[in-house]
Amino acid sequence: MFKDELGDIGTNRDMRDDAGSAPAAFQETNANPDLIRREGFASEADYRAYLATLGGHVPAEGLSEDALRVSDDYALESRLRDLREELENLRARLHVIQRQAATVVAENVRWADASAHAQLGTQPWLKLAGAMAATFVVTRAIRQLPLGAVTTTAMPLVVAAMNRKFARS
């Protein structure tokens, strides 16, 4: 096959001059317009007359509404059963996920406790509480100091210490 030839892969069938079948629009224009029915039927008599023009006989009694309802009910029941099974499957998955989440939380608590014991020894929470209390007391004491007077007094001492340090370098 050359580049300009149309390959017989089924995609270019409408492009060939000698196509095996006519396009659907061509077939539809040659069809008997009495046999083409696109709208619904006004009554049962119109439906039977249409079937007679087609030349076939379809028993209308076999297509009663009760039979259709039973098949529709069966289809609905089947779909409902499938949805219930899917819902149970999702509930089981959710239960597994909840158990896994609880396990993860419990393991994180155990890890935090073990880490605290490794860093602070026995009774780590008591030591942490003591450190927080000491921080609170020191902060309160610093707030009580007259920082303006302390800064004014300490500033010349800090500047003198820095000058001595730079003089040695």
Overview in brief:
The protein has five helices and no strands. It is mainly alpha-helical and 169 residues long.
Kindly describe this structure.
With 169 residues, the protein is an all-alpha fold. Helix content is 69%, strand content 0%. The protein contains five helices and no strands. It is elongated and about 120 Å long. 0% of the residues are buried. Residues 1-28 have low confidence and may be disordered.
Descriptive terms for the model:
single chain; 169 residues; mainly alpha; elongated; disordered N terminus
Poorly predicted runs:
1-28
Helix-and-strand structural type: mainly alpha
Which percent range describes the beta-strand content?
A: under 5%
Q: Shape, please? A: elongated
Tell me the distance between the termini: 90 Å
Counting DSSP E segments of at least 2 residues, the number of strands comes to 0
Order of helices and strands: HHHHH
Helix content: 55-70%
Largest sheet: none
Number of helical stretches of at least 4 residues: 5
Mean pLDDT: 75
Rg value: 46 Å
